[in-house]
Amino acid sequence: MAGNGLSSLGRVKLADLAPSEGLPSDAYKISVSTLSHSLAQYSAVIIQFPASDGALLRSGLDSARLYFHQRASYPAADMIHTNDSREWCKTSGYFADPQLWQEIYDYRPGLTPMEPSNGMEFHPAGLPDIFSLLGNAARVILDAISFYLNLRSSPFTEILDNVPLRSREISSSALSVCCYARPSFQGAHHHNLTTQEDGQLVMYPEQEHQVDKSLISLVKSDKAGLLVRDLHGRWVLVDEHLGPQEVVVYPGLALYQATAGYIIPALHRTEINNMQDNMYGRCSLAFKLMPKSMTSLSCSEMRAAGHGVEAQFQLPIPVDDFMQRSHPTEQLLNRNTFQNYNFPTPQDGSMKPLMRRKKNNSRCKPLPPSKRLRLEAQRLLKERVQEIADKKGIKLRFCNLKECENHIHSLDSPCATIRMEIGWPHGVPFVHPHDLPNKSKIAFLEAYEPGWTASHDMESSLSEHVQAGQQSANCNCKSLVQAL
């Protein structure tokens, strides 16, 4: 599943991601690779449903427009969104956020009554069918991500709702029918939209971004306006050219936690263009696959697959606590921080300062060959390997030395794909060069430093020993002459 990166947002057919017994087909491997690379580069991917499902999605959006159009011009006080994180798994029915000029109808099986309580109340049509369609797709996508991470089949089953729900169970996942900037929705003088010079209205100011706490989110809109921040910090309009049966998929914070940070959650915001000429605003269907509230997010599956798990992901976190916590997005705003690690640095800094000190101080001892190997390998890892990984959207996670001695002889090891994609030296364990034995360090340097050889390094080290000895002898002779 090697890839050279994607020039645009990846498109994958849902049918090609459906798992089957036996060995994976070529179509499945290609689709999983496209999915994973698109998520790594753009934090989003476009999923293509069968053409027959396009009619259901289209009718859902049509019903959404009519539902919000017949709503009152301003919501009642008890329908104003309070942003209470404690109610994350209890939202149901209609509520509004006048500050963002946004209206939402949450459909949650087991909690949302689909039969009207009186003859005057209507609900968006087709929600159970759309919930089932997008929910099944979300689980298929989640399993495809698990396959790419070399996890066992359906590793997240224990934290997901039962299929179907048991008696009196309430779904943790929800289908949100959303409407932005409906012209008949009053209270616009309270909203915080920012008007740009070209007349474009942006729902969220530049300093405010949204990140879902879901595992996977699927969004289908009737007008373009969803922007997601990519690997390089650029905002990409991801729903501009969606077909009738296509939806945008992006990962959330729960998946980031459950995969020990390997799957980066999407930062997104919504903009609105030329809503003045539209009587319905911008409508969308958003399904969020959520973990059950009475379970915990654990990285045990990642650990069992041989992935490194950093300290912040070591302990399981109860889902309910996770959903009520605040999650600062400062690190997510700088995507490169997830590609870099704090490597141990020598006391004298990089190689260049070391060489300068040698020139300025003729009496300093030359580096022994073992330390030279370590410093050279560390420098190359930072400069060359990290650059390759960043360009391809690969997150480097090094193995344990003892474990990886077996990985290098297996095609299905946790690090096999990464080693292949960045051209890791053959036969060298996929661990930080600082932890490699000298023989493997030499192979690492010869792969990434053209013209570098261990014999050349030893010769230069010996010549420095000789030069240092000669300089020391000259100094001793001069001092001896002055004494006489």
Automatic annotation (TrEMBL):
Residues covered by region (Disordered): 343-369
Domain of life: Eukaryota
PANTHER family (UniProt xref): 2-OXOGLUTARATE (2OG) AND FE(II)-DEPENDENT OXYGENASE SUPERFAMILY PROTEIN, U-BOX DOMAIN-CONTAINING PROTEIN 62-RELATED
The protein's name: 2-oxoglutarate (2OG) and Fe(II)-dependent oxygenase superfamily protein
Origin species: Rubroshorea leprosula
